[in-house]
Design a protein that fits this description.
With 152 residues, this protein is α+β, with helices and mostly antiparallel strands. Strand 5 and strand 6 form a beta hairpin. The termini are far apart. The model has no long low-confidence stretch (mean pLDDT 86).
Length: 152
């Protein structure tokens, strides 16, 4: 009886150690991305909705551009609205210290069914950038070469 109790204790410790090792290995293998929160407007309500995505770590200076490019692709959920028309692309993305200069193509001016105003869309884009990249104090957004948003 004592041997059986000792054996069960060893098996329990083995299972716990195996689970711990499996957890550590899984954590090390799957942390190659950074967590980003994306904000979109909903079709169903006036509330802002969030999506959490893990994006592959881009080189440091290209992280904002990769984030905005992913944001312009639109939401994963079909009940959220695109911020701009799906054809919108990035013309330039330059940072200078705590300032970010972002240029979008003229397709950003096209209204898509259910889209709010351009001012609201640009404000939502700025909010997405500032909340995910806190080092930027000022975001200057250009559409087709004209500045549409310059606010701290």
């Amino acid at each position: 009886m004592k041997e059986r109790k000792h054996f069960l204790t060893l098996v329990l410790y083995g299972v716990i150690a195996g689970a711990f090792i499996f957890s550590v290995v899984s954590y090390c293998m799957h942390r190659h991305g950074s967590r980003r929160v994306y904000y979109f407007n909903s079709y169903d309500s006036q509330n802002l909705c969030t999506e959490v995505r893990y994006i592959v770590n881009a080189r440091k200076e290209g992280a904002v551009e990769a984030f905005v490019a992913d944001l312009l692709l639109g939401p994963l959920t079909n009940r959220y609205r695109n911020i701009f028309s799906p054809e919108t692309s990035i013309k330039f993305c330059v940072s200078n210290g705590r300032n970010l200069y972002l240029g979008l193509s003229e397709e950003a001016l096209r209204e898509v069914n259910g889209m709010k105003s351009i001012r609201d869309s640009v404000g939502l884009l700025k909010m997405n950038i500032v909340r995910n990249f806190t080092k930027y104090k000022n975001v200057y957004i250009f559409i087709d070469g004209e500045i549409v948003f310059a606010e701290g």
